[in-house]
Every structure is written in C-alpha cells, then in structure tokens.
Write a structure and sequence with these properties.
Blueprint: H1 3-17, E1 21-25, H2 30-33, E2 46-51, H3 58-65, H4 70-75, E3 78-81, E4 98-100, E5 109-112, H5 115-125, H6 128-139, H7 145-151, H8 159-176
Parallel strand pairs: 1-5, 2-3
Antiparallel strand pairs: 1-2, 4-5
Length: 221
C-alpha cells in the first residue's frame, strides 16, 4: 500500500461511517510520518482503522470496504475495522498521532501512529512479520532504539512483559546492524517468546497467550 492508497481508504472509511477523523494503526500507519517507506514496510494491502470518536462503527467499515468486498476487488486494497485496544501502545500515543488531510482524503483527517509507538506495538505483538518490520524501521533510522526504550515504562503491561520487550529490542538492534557474511545466521532465527499477558487478565503473564492486548480484535498487519 502506498500513501495515495491509504488516503483513498481514509476518504472511503469516513464516508461509510459519516465521521471526520479516522485512526490508522498497524503497519500502514507508518505512511503518515513516512510517505515513502522502505519497500519491505509497505507490503500489506490492509489498513487497520477505526473512527476516532465512534469506534463502534468499525464493523461498518469491514462490511463496506473490508477484505473480499467490492472495494477490495476493485482497488486491490482494503480496510479492517479494529478499535483502540487492538494495539498495545504506550501512554500518550494519541498526543503523538500524525495527521493526513488533503484533497485526496476528501478533507477528512486520518491519524497515524507515531513510528516509535508503532514499533512498540509490534514489539508487543512479536510475530515474525512484526520483527522483520521493526528491523527495517531501525535499519533505515526511522525509529531510534533509545527513544523506544524510553517509552517502554509507559506501556500498559506488567514489569516482566516490559523486560521481555526490552530484551527483544536488544535483539532487533543486533539484527538491524550490518554483519560480515562469516557471522552466519540471522539473530532473529532463534525463537523469541512473545511478551504476552493473559487474555483474561492483562496483568497476569502467560506463556500461552499469542500476543498482548485485547483478544476481541485481530492483530494489525
């Protein structure tokens, strides 16, 4: 997905829900702060979105411009309606949102995650594709590891989960640093336990939980 396509989704989603402000989370929210991201960060054709002041209308977005909709078939991109609990984000993330608003959005506003907040949300989800995405953010200096580490204490997770996020960031730093070929396999080839909390009790660590945050919505791409 490119910036113009995300703007189209903003225009379409706000029209479907008759709202003015749309929040974009997930990987494509990077297009707010970085209109021309590295190709590896723009693979997904899905934008995870919700109306800022009417999250309950997210299901309407799924029905009208979601996966397998006519919109998807016509334009090759689609929106997934989520909510503000889908991503695990540090306190103050709303104050750091990046606005997209122009003629192509129909004058409506799309609000994208700050890249460092996006990085931390993907550390929390900790799937292989999240780690690969985050390595690119570090490699291209879109996110500074120190900035991310400074926000970890403000993530709504318990101390042990924060420690796992810090450990993961250390591994991502190593993976993003160029190495001589003789050093062998990627540092990310080793299994990395997801920094999870129990779905039933967000403050209770659980080795079986696949990710952090509310279980009622799918993880952003």
């Amino acid at each position: 997905m490119n910036r113009s396509q995300l703007e189209h989704i903003i225009r379409a989603a706000t029209a479907v829900t008759n709202t003015y402000d749309l929040v974009i989370v997930g990987s494509q929210s990077l297009l707010g702060a970085v209109p021309n991201p590295p190709p590896a960060c723009a693979i997904s054709m899905e934008a995870d979105v919700f109306p800022m002041d009417a999250e309950e209308l997210s299901d309407d977005i799924d029905g009208a411009i979601g996966e397998f909709s006519d919109f998807h078939e016509t334009h090759g991109i689609y929106a997934q309606g989520v909510d503000s609990t889908t991503s695990v984000l540090p306190d103050g993330w709303r104050n750091r949102l990046v606005r997209i608003q122009n003629e192509n959005t129909g004058g409506r506003a799309g609000w994208c995650l700050d890249p460092t907040d996006l990085f931390l949300a993907k550390c929390a989800a900790n799937r292989e594709k999240d780690r690969d995405f985050n390595v690119e953010l570090l490699r291209h200096s879109i996110v500074k590891s120190q900035d991310a580490l400074e926000r970890v204490p403000f993530m709504p997770i318990d101390d042990s989960a924060r420690d796992r996020v810090r450990s993961l960031i250390g591994r991502l730093i190593l993976a993003s640093t160029p190495k001589p070929p003789m050093l062998g396999s990627s540092v990310l080839s080793c299994p990395i336990p997801a920094p999870c909390v129990s779905a039933d009790s967000p403050e209770t660590p659980s080795s079986h939980a696949p990710c952090l945050g509310a279980p009622t919505r799918p993880r952003p791409e």
